[in-house]
Specification:
Blueprint lengths: L4 H16 L13 H6 L5 H7 L7 H10 L6 H4 L12 H4 L28 E5 L2 E5 L18 H4 L7 H9 L5 E5 L8 H12 L6 E6 L1 H4 L6 H9 L3 E6 L9 H12 L3 E7 L8 H13 L3 E6 L14 H12 L9 E4 L8 E2 L2
Helix pairs in contact: 13-14
The structure holds pyridoxal-5'-phosphate and iron/sulfur cluster.
Length: 355
């Protein structure tokens, strides 16, 4: 008898059932759903240091910085961090550090002055033809360099009913062709919320595109499931997903699977990174990032120079080093793997070339 697809699917699901029966006390047990993994984040600095077998002398300052902007990390992301290495480039993106308590001049709470471009709650309209909609207050991971680390999400992220003014603004502003779902992380929302929002947007005739800015395919890859990709595939809107990968070490097989599913749903995959001191501020790391991204079917889009948000000054890369990195990358990469070096300048009509 021939083996059919259904056979294979059945065997797979049967096998899944078996693994589901492993008791929770088993140390190799993995959360089975993305919601479960999202509810089991690492949020205690001591726990993080223990899991990664790091020196406990880091703890007092980590706890202080954690009070300013809490630690949040998924188990999936944690598995890609090297143990006993305080300089691991992924660890540096999530570990609260004493340096965050420093207050150097020029680093402020709202570096982009976004409050000036908010025509409706949860909506930022800064550039022609596209708006940014805060679709979720949550992230699966808190990135220490985040320019929204001081953002008042509770105040600015509308619940379903409160989205109406933003939707009304988009509907009456016919120049808007593209809605960008941002946050927080828009994919941290439940399908129900996300699909409802998508349905509202699909009904606005002048919209052509939906763009999703997210770190979820990297930090919680199992969230990219068939319910989501099937829904995206059905949409009349063209879709672009911009993921935020800063280092090739963030990419692994699980991430590759999630990206493949998105590609199958005809989603265009782009990446933007932030240039971060000691994480990715050297030519070899950035070249490897571009090359790896392309192997995973993703094109580099932007490399952002750090926004001067207070608490993140230690990630800042000097102007002359940025210029040198740009020059060296150009000499090593094909043009289509060269990200645009940009910075965000408040009140400009687009992102501005950084070199
Ligand atoms: C970055 C950004 C966009 C998107 O800009 P692109 O250059 O199209 O990627 C849109 N709105 C806001 C508020 C942004 O910060
Ligand atoms: S996922 Fe994005 S919005 Fe969330 S903390 Fe990281 S950089 Fe900030």
């Amino acid at each position: 008898m021939q083996t059919t697809r259904e056979d294979i699917a059945y065997r797979k699901s049967h096998h899944m059932k078996k693994t589901l029966m492993i008791p929770r006390t088993n140390p190799s047990w993995q959360p089975q759903s993305w919601q479960e993994e999202l509810s089991q984040l690492i949020t205690d600095p001591r726990h993080l240091l223990e899991l990664l077998e790091l020196d406990m002398s880091l703890l007092p300052l980590a706890q202080k910085a954690h009070k300013l902007f809490p630690l949040r990390c998924t188990h999936s992301y944690l598995q890609r961090i090297e143990k006993r290495n305080p300089k691991d480039p992924l660890l540096l993106q999530i570990l609260p550090l004493g340096k965050e308590l420093e207050q150097p001049e020029g680093f402020v709470k709202d570096p982009l002055e976004e409050h000036a471009f908010t025509p409706a709650k949860g909506l930022i309209h800064k550039y022609h033809g596209r708006v940014l909609l805060m679709a979720s207050a949550q992230c699966a991971i808190n990135c220490r360099y985040c320019f929204r680390r001081h953002y008042d999400y509770i105040d600015n992220t509308p619940s379903r009913l409160q989205w109406q003014p933003a939707l009304d603004y988009i509907t009456k502003t016919e120049s808007i062709k593209e809605v960008i779902l941002s946050g927080g992380d828009p994919l941290a929302s439940a399908d129900k919320v996300l699909f409802w929002l998508l349905e509202q947007l699909e009904q606005i005739p002048h919209l052509h595109r939906l763009r999703i800015h997210t770190r979820i395919p990297l930090v919680l890859p199992k969230r990219i499931n068939t319910a989501l990709t099937d829904r995206l595939k059905q949409s009349r809107l063209q879709q672009v997903l911009v993921m935020h990968c800063n280092h090739a070490q963030e990419l692994n097989g699980e991430v590759g699977q999630a990206l493949n599913q998105l590609k199958q749903a005809d989603v265009t995959l782009l990446n933007q990174s932030v240039l971060l001191k000691d994480v990715n501020d050297n030519t070899q790391t950035l070249v490897e990032l571009s090359e790896s991204l392309f192997r995973y079917g993703v094109l580099p889009y932007y490399l952002h120079v750090l926004d001067p948000v207070s608490g993140a000054a230690h990630f800042d890369v000097k102007e002359e080093d940025i210029n040198a990195l740009h020059r060296e990358m150009l000499a090593l990469l094909p043009g289509f793997l060269m990200p645009k070096f940009v910075r965000e300048v408040p009140h400009e009509k687009s992102k501005i070339a950084a070199v």
